[in-house]
Known about the structure:
Structural class of chain A: mainly beta
Distance between the termini of chain B: 38 Å
Largest interface: A-B, 23 and 25 residues
Structural class of chain B: mainly beta
Largest sheet of chain A: 6 strands, mixed
Helix content of chain A: under 10%
Order of helices and strands of chain A: EEEEEEEEEEE
Oligomer: heterodimer
Amino acid sequence: DQQVKQNSPSLSVQEGRISILNCDYTNSMFDYFLWYKKYPAEGPTFLISISSIKDKNEDGRFTVFLNKSAKHLSLHIVPSQPGDSAVYFCAANTGGFKTIFGAGTRLFVKA
Amino acid sequence: SQTIHQWPATLVQPVGSPLSLECTVEGTSNPNLYWYRQAAGRGLQLLFYSVGIGQISSEVPQNLSASRPQDRQFILSSKKLLLSDSGFYLCAWTRPPVNEQFFGPGTRLTVL
């Protein structure tokens, strides 16, 4: 049962343009949604989160949008940089012990 | 500040051999600790989590086990490795209330 889905396995974007990474979920009880970034052979690093009571959270070049009616969230990176090339995981939790991760989207930012 | 350590970084083991991966956290007390596995081209699969010393919850029935002998130490073990145990193993701790997870550097395990 995939409660968190990232349907795009990869995305390619030109440097300086916007990257939009998408995520869908099925469990309406999730309290928090999170995005992580992962480079090869390293552990994921936490990027940004959003509470289910909000619809937008911004941190520098990263903005997460939450559309609860559509059970959809997205991560916007503006402007995209070559160093942003990595795998991005969407995740969600109910404020408890377990976090559900999506399968990840590999972002390529071309110089 | 908090740091999380994992070792070894890489490991090559024959099928049927035992396994012990260690994870330690510094700079925080009574953390929730987690073991994840990322198989090639796949997402993160939660294997075990622990909310305190000696308290282990298993998410996936398999030939792996976990133990938490000390507050900031989490160990992943197996008595006999299978080929399917190959993967990238990650330890993590969480910080409430958002429970964002902070991951260690990972261990690349190859079972031959």
